[in-house]
Amino acid sequence: MVDQKGGYSKIGFTQKDMYNKIAKLRRSKAFESDSQAAILYLESKAFTEANFYCRFNTDNDDRLANIFWRDYHSLFEYKCFGDVLVFDTTYKTNAYGKPLVLFVGVNNHSATCVFGAALLLDETFTSYKWALTKLMDSMGSKHPLSIMTDGDEAMRQAIDEVFPNCQHRVCGWHVARNACAHINGPKKSSAFRSFIFDHIDEDKFDECWNEMIKQHGLEDNVWVNMMYEKRHRWAEIYSKGHFFAGMRSTQRSESMNNYMKEYVCSREKLFDLFPQIDRALMRLRNNFFTDEYASNTKSPIILSHMKALEKHASSIYTYRIYCDITKEINDSIKYSHFAPWNEENEVEYVLTKYDSPYKKTVSVFYYRDRIDFQQVVEDGDWDSSKHNLPVLSCECKLLQNKGIPCCHMFYVMKVENITKIPESLIFKRWTKSATDDVRIHLQPDDDYSKSV
C-alpha cells in the first residue's frame, strides 16, 4: 500500500490502525459463528424441554443484538412468586461485553429464584423495553405487583412503558451511596439517608425535608433537588403499604450476579455461557428442594410466650418465614396498651412500649369481618370504604409490605385470646403449600411458549 500510494504519509492510517481493523473483523466473524452455535444450543433445549422459551433480535448488520430466555422452572417459579421482580445488569460475563440481566424474585423460603435472563446489546430504553416485553410474553402477560431496580433512568422509562400500574422502588442502598457522593459531609448525608429508611409520616415529609434542607444549606444542591422530585420511588414512606417481600434494596439481584460469576468469566464465549448459566441454576434450584424438605420435616422447639400461635405458625409457614414470625411474636412482649376504644364492629388498641409511655404509639384495629388478604394485595387497594379490612390491621403496615403479621398484631391476638393466626392475615406465598395449586394446574403443554 505504501508503494502504491508513494509513501506512508499518503495512506491515511497507521500500521497499528490496520492491525486493529483486522482484529475487529476477526472478532466479528468469531461472534457470528459463536452466536450461531449458541442459538443452536438453545434450539436443542427447546426441542427437549417443555415450555422452554427464547427470543432474540438482530441489529442493522443482521448480527445478534438482544436475546432473552427462560425455562420451565422459571415459568413455574414466576407463577408462584412473580409478585415482586428485582433486576439490574452485570458486566464482563462474556467476551463481547454484552450486559447480562437476571430477573429474580424471592420464593416461599425467602430464597432467591430466577425468572429469566437476557443478554442485551446495550443499556438503553429500547433494549430494556424489549427484554421486559419478552419476559411478559413468556409468562402469559402476568405482571408483577412491585419492581425493585438500581435506579437506572433507562430502566425506569422501560418499566413505566411496560408496567404502568406497577409499584417501582429504587434500591435504598444505591440512593444512600449516591447521597455520600453528592452531599459533602457525613452529617448532611446521614440526614438525607434518614428519609430513605425511616418511617416519616407522609403528611410531615415536606416539613421535615425543608427543615433538613435549611439546616444543612442544601437549597442549591442540584442532586438533592432532583431526588426530591423522585421521592415517591425511594423514600420509605411512599413504599409503605406496598408489597416488596420485605426488600428495600437490589441486594438479591447483585448477590445473584456475584453467584453467576463463579460459573462464568469475562472471556466466556456465548456457546459456553449458556451451559454455564444452566449449571448455576441447577445448583440454585437444588437448594429449593433442600429447603422444601427441611420445612416439611423439621419440628421446631416452641419457646415463645404464645405457644399456641407459634405452634400454628410452624404448621403453615416454611421454616425461614416461621423464624421471622417467631421474632415478631417475641417482640410483642415489649408492648402495653391503653384502654381500647370500642365501636360496633371494631376495636382500636393504642400500643406503646412499656418503658416509653406516650412517646410513640401504634394503633391496631381488630375487626370481626374477614377478607382474603391475597386478593387485597393483588388489588393494591386498602381503602376501607371499598373493602372490609382484615381481622387485624396495623398502622405499621408490615403485613402489606412483607406479608407477615407484625408484633403489634400478635400483642392484640394475645389480648383477644386468639390462638390461631387468622386466615385473612396469612399470605399463601409464604406457606408450605404455596406451590400446590400451580403444581396441579400448570402442565407442560400449557401454551406459554414456543420454540426458539
From TrEMBL:
Pfam families: MULE. Residues 84-178 form the MULE transposase domain. It comes from the Eukaryota. InterPro entries: MULE_transposase_dom. This is MULE transposase domain-containing protein. The lineage of its organism: Eukaryota, Viridiplantae, Streptophyta, Embryophyta, Tracheophyta.
